[in-house]
Amino acid sequence: MTTIDHFNLRNFDLNLLIAFDAMMEELNVTRAAARLKIQQPAMSHSLKTLRMLFDDELFVRVGQTMKPTSRARSLASRVRAVLQKAEDALAFSEQFSPLTEQRTFRLGFSSELEVHLLPELMAHLRVVAPGVRLVARHAERQNLHALLNSGDIDLAIGCFGEQAQWQRSEILFEEQLACCFNPALMPFTSPIGQQDYLTQPHALMSFTGSLMGCVENAFNRAGASLNAVFSAPNFLALLSFAQHSPVLVTLPSRIARRYGKLFGLVLCPVPLQLEVFPNSIVWPVNADSDPALEWLREQIRDVNQRIEPADVVAH
C-alpha cells in the first residue's frame, strides 16, 4: 500500500479539487458556483487559491468564455479520478451474502461450549453458508481481552464476566451447575444432601491453577466451602476422573447432562442456592457495523435456541 503524507494533505483544502472540477465542467465562474451551491465570490476565492497553489492561471478568459490552460487540462483527469474514488468510497456499502461468501471467521470458545455449541454451529453453517470457514480458539477470562484486542478472534462465546469498555456483549443463555458422580463408588445415590455434597471430595474445572477454579466466587457468596482435591481445565478429564474415583464433579449443567452418562455417571442438582452463570457473545465495538459478523451472531443465537435446553436439572 502506498504511503500517504497525511501532514501535507491536512494543510490542503480538498474542496478546492471539487471547485476545480466544477470549473472544468462549466468553464464559467458563475455557473460553477451555482453547480456547487455557493456564492460567486466564494468560487472566485477558490479559483484564486488554486492559481496560487499550482502557480498557473488554470483558466483564462478568451472572448466571452473561460478556457483551461495546458496545466489545467493535464490535471483534469487526475482530479476527476480522485473525486470519483472519494465518491465511490462514500457510497460503498458492505454487502454480505451467506450463499456466496468466502470468509474465515475466527471464534473464541470456552472449553464447554467448544463441544456444546461449536459442532451444531458448524453443521448449520455448512448448509446456509457453504463457503464460510471457522477457526476455533480456546478463550477464557484470562486471555479474552488480548485475543479480541489483537484481532486474533472476531468474537468469543462463553462465561467471561465483565467486559472492557471497547467491547460489546449480549447474553446467550444463563447456566446452572450440576453434580456428577459414579454411584458404584460413592456411599449415596442421587439426589444428594447438602451435608454430603459439602464434605465429599470434589473435582472442579479451573483455568487459573487454583483448586476451586471459576466456581470459587459463587460458592463463597453462598457461604459454602468445598473439599476440592482435583482441578483441571478440561471437563472430559474431570468426568474420566469421576468414573474411576470416589469424587463429585461440579460442572455446567449442559455438559453434565450431555456427557455424564457416557462415563457411567449419574446427574443430580447442586444442593445449594448458587448464582447462575451468564454465557455471552462478546465482540469488539469496531465490529458493530460488520454485516457478516452481525449475521454470524444471529446464526449463533438461532443454533443455541435449537439445542435442547439442558441447563435445568430437576430438583
TrEMBL record:
GO molecular function: DNA binding; DNA-binding transcription factor activity
InterPro entries cross-referenced by the UniProt entry: LysR-type_TF, LysR_HTH_N, LysR_subst-bd, WH-like_DNA-bd_sf, WH_DNA-bd_sf
Domain of life: Bacteria
A Pfam family assignment: LysR_substrate
Keyword NAD in annotation: no
Keyword flag Transcription regulation: yes
Domain HTH lysR-type: 12-69
Record's keyword terms, sorted: DNA-binding, Transcription, Transcription regulation
PANTHER family registered for this protein in UniProt: HTH-TYPE TRANSCRIPTIONAL REGULATOR LEUO-RELATED, TRANSCRIPTIONAL REGULATORY PROTEIN
Family: Belongs to the LysR transcriptional regulatory family.
Name listed for the protein in its UniProt record: LysR family transcriptional regulator
